[in-house]
From TrEMBL:
The lineage of its organism: Bacteria, Bacillati, Bacillota, Bacilli, Bacillales. Residues 109-161 form the RNA polymerase sigma factor 70 region 4 type domain. It comes from the Bacteria. PANTHER family: RNA POLYMERASE ECF-TYPE SIGMA FACTO, RNA POLYMERASE SIGMA FACTOR HI_1459-RELATED. Residues 17-81 form the RNA polymerase sigma-70 region domain. Belongs to the sigma-70 factor family. ECF subfamily. This is RNA polymerase sigma factor. Keywords: DNA-binding, Sigma factor, Transcription, Transcription regulation.
Amino acid sequence: MLELASGNDAALDMIIIRYHKPLFGYLYRLTLDEKVAEDLVQETFVAIYQQGQQGIVPQRFKPWLYKIATNACKDYWKKASFRKESLQAPPREQTSQVANLIERQVERQWMIDALNQLPIMYRTVLYLRFYQDLKYSEIASVVDLPINTIKTQVGRGLKKLECILREEDIRAEVGRR
């Protein structure tokens, strides 16, 4: 960001190379739509570029990046077009070539499906904590909440997730009988 703020536009390329994939993964998990996630990633990088052009350099880049992305996601959800789209079920595409990969993907998809049943705030803090590996203090700055609130939301989110997984496990067990 220092390079970008000093006028080196090529610095944005390095930021994109480093953060595109994890940022896309985070936004995809929140939106469940590849095209929307990619649009939000682009919007995030445009905002970072604009901030850099204004000479803004955050103290801690990663939480700042995720805050911009989270806000872009919130803005997307506020739009009327999202409300119309959300009435339709998101497409589920799962492809893989190797049995081991399929098994891992099924387990991963099972977890993601369970996470997606959580209210958005729990889902957001859990994704930031466990998929993006942010610290509680960084999550607090991303979502503009006190750190103790974040700790509470992570704890409650994990408890709700455990209940969802237990219910699904019971349903699967009953289905096998």
